Predict the 3D structure of the following.
Amino acid sequence: MDFFPHIRPRYTKGEADEDGIYACLIAFATNHGIFQISQISDLNYNRLHSIFKNNIRLENLKNAADIVSDKIAELPMFKRWNLMDNLLFASLDGKKKQTKRQNIISRFSPKYFGRKRGVVCYSMIANNVCVNAKILGANEHESHYSFDMVQNHNTNITDDYICGDDHSINSVNFILFRLISSKFAPHLKNLYKKTQKLFCFGNPEKYKGGLVTPEGTINSKLIEDEWENIQHIFASLLMKETTQSIVVKKLSAYKRRNKTQAALWEFDKIFRSLHILHFIQDPVFRQCIRIVLNRGEGIHQLTGALGDIGGGKFKGSTELELQIANECLRLVTNCIIYYNTAILSKIYETQEKEGNTQALEFLQWLSPIAWCHINLGGNYEFINQENPLNIDEMIANLDFDVAMK
């Protein structure tokens, strides 16, 4: 609640209306809107409308969601979800969502919306936590915003690998993620076709006869000649002096090619080829990438369940309102995940003290992305709230042997 002050703190009297702030957050996360939530709750419309105008802002929502993400990362179970030698894998993926009103960012996509319009809710998920989120147009390529999403999130969660599907791959992402000490590890479909895009140094004929052979040679001289210009581009991206998604979009475009762009593409081929070979050689690595992408799909199912309560369509009429609704959805989603993670962490600590190794191994494969025990619909009461749940009491009454069976 500390992140939702009044827009004019010098001239306001009294403390922030926490009940009204809770109602506004749920109203936009569930796509009810403040008018509909006032009809099914104990708060009137004028009170909610005033709070929305004065307290709910995009910056406040981002800060609150980041704090919840950091608190989840401090819980004992968070590190137990690391994979492959205790490495943190994160994923980037988009979810198509229809909009109720037309606006400049809402576009047509017959594959997902039919004759309607919609947007893409692009998310970064690390160990079942939504670290960052952004609204994109349905006509935008997701890979142009991947570097921006990873570098510009404000949480304390640091990743080792960034995973994604085919929509996260472009001509420069493999090299750009190396700038921020992250390894880009997308899932590869049609692996046979991907092996035809391998490149090597020197003459590729010397690999002839092997199971996997390179297609061509990397032009290392072009990289050396354009190295100074490449460094200027890297510095511009890292210093955030320009909009990163626009720079990546121009570097990935096939039109207006020049020597610097061609050199960057050659540089990217080095790390792309290394990833393809690693993906082929290591089955555990492939499995970890698939697990992380499935976690991202689980987050999308949870956000979909929340959004479907109020009709499943964003009701914002401007890009800012859509971003606010998406951040409300991210905040409520992270709160549900924090609640589940806190319960699992308490159980883990209890079983660890008892030395139950079988239970500890079982808990590591449980997901906090669950909402069957949470009533998302119905009428809402914000004023006469019941006493908070006692997690310790819940765990004390749990028969864990029965739960494992």
In short: Residues 319-354 form the longest helix (36 residues). Residues 62-296 form one domain. DSSP finds 18 helices and eight strands in the chain. The first strand starts at residue 89 and ends at 98.
